[in-house]
Amino acid sequence: xxxxxDQYLDLMRAALSGRLTLKEFAGKYMMxxxxxxxxxxxxxxxxxxxxxxxxxxxVPRSDPRYEELKAKFPEFxxxxxxxxxxIADALNRLSNLRPDAE
Length: 102
Description:
mainly alpha
């Protein structure tokens, strides 16, 4: 399946605006990225892949297992604020690569 950069940007904006919960975003993003067969430049791919990995590492603070997972896998567990920050950074970086994307 072909996925446009604008589709990724729309997902990120939806998460940052609260139109999608972070859990919804993580699920949709991981599915979209996994199904995407589009060839991308290295920098774009690295940004998109980073959000995919962040989506996999995201654990809501409200999850009863959060503290246990954070203690056991501190480098592979990110909370709501960190996830939002990383999504915003990726959105900014992708937008800077494509000035027309905003």
